Amino acid sequence: MLDVMKNRFMIGQYGSFDYNKYHRDFLPGFYGIEACLFDSEQDIANLAKESQAAGFQIGVHFPLRAGVTALRDAQFLSSDNATRTQAYEDVERELAFLSALKPSYVLFHYPKPVILDDRADWSGWRFDDPSEHVFESAYSNEKFREESHALFEWLSEQGRAYGFTPVLEFDALNRYVYLTNEVEDLLGKHSNIKLCLDTARLYLQDRIDPHFDAKTVIRKFAKHAETIHLSNFQMDRNNKVIQKRVPVQPDLDPSEGWAPIADYLQIICAENDRFKVMFEHQSQLVSDQELYECYRWVAELIRSGREAG
């Protein structure tokens, strides 16, 4: 079953093109590699060389090059005009650079800044900079709608111009996203824009935000998913993280604080039969055999989910 499904599997390379990780984690027939924040031109050259040699696709988590932006994520929705303008300029410059690599997709976090529900405790959510989040009480739904419309219009045009699929990875979400149809309507209007659902991030918000239900959100948006960032988190009864970015395994029991990965994938498969899985885990946490079992189990879950759907 793994052989049938692995053309939908990807690994991530963060910071550099790590040949040890490539030779261990990447199996022949995998769809591709998602790359982010490479430190050197040589790393980018290695990615391009191996892609051509093995015939795999390149996905980019913006930005590909480290140091070209002040922060990793483009703040497309910033209330500050200068910050928002800079975000668009940074992305436009990076897209021009990426055109030679011909990435299959380019991924951006959305919404950024993250709009936080005032009713939840966000002390467990990591932000690299205070500017990366704003509370819902200080950011209106009208502003969200206005800036999102502009972003979708622009990204859709860039995707067509450069020949890539724009992918928006959900960051923390507030009611503007999950209790309205505004984002769904934009995805319908700009059908070349897709989503990335991150199982770890969805589970974390499910645990710390009492108004958020990850399974409901997954069900709402699964049909628009281009990629699933897959890993597992374990949290204690006080919603403190015990382990993170662990390779998914069938014996990681939700009753012991692990994310319900099988349930998540079942919901996605019922709505979408084309998504890619990017294993966003720390593979060094497991043995070679356990890593292969991770791949095999996910392939089986997709197969059974597809047949059930």
Keywords:
single chain, 309 residues, alpha/beta, 8-stranded parallel beta barrel, two-stranded parallel sheet, 12 strands, 19% strand
How would you describe what is shown here?
By secondary structure, the chain is of the alpha/beta class. It contains 11 helices and 12 strands. It has helices at 2-5, 19-25, 41-54, 81-98, 141-162, 175-178, 182-189, 199-208, 214-221, 261-271, 288-308, and strands spanning 9-14, 32-36, 57-61, 105-110, 114-116, 133-135, 165-170, 194-198, 225-230, 232-235, 241-246, 276-279. The longest helix has 22 residues, at 141-162. The two termini are 18 Å apart.
Rg measurement, Å: 19 Å
Cα distance, first to last residue? 18 Å
Strand content: 15-25%
Number of strands: 12
**Category from helices, strands and their pairing:** alpha/beta
Compose a concise summary of this entry:
The chain is an alpha/beta fold and 309 residues long. It has helices at residues 2-5, 19-25, 41-54, 81-98, 141-162, 175-178, 182-189, 199-208, 214-221, 261-271, 288-308; strands at residues 9-14, 32-36, 57-61, 105-110, 114-116, 133-135, 165-170, 194-198, 225-230, 232-235, 241-246, 276-279. It has an eight-stranded parallel barrel with strand order 1-2-3-4-7-8-9-12, surrounded by four helices. A two-stranded parallel ribbon has the order 5-6.
Task: Produce the secondary structure layout.
Elements (H helix, E strand, L loop, with lengths): L1 H4 L3 E6 L4 H7 L6 E5 L4 H14 L2 E5 L19 H18 L6 E6 L3 E3 L16 E3 L5 H22 L2 E6 L4 H4 L3 H8 L4 E5 H10 L5 H8 L3 E6 L1 E4 L5 E6 L14 H11 L4 E4 L8 H21 L1
Parallel strand pairs: 1-2, 1-12, 2-3, 3-4, 4-7, 5-6, 7-8, 8-9, 9-12
Antiparallel strand pairs: 10-11
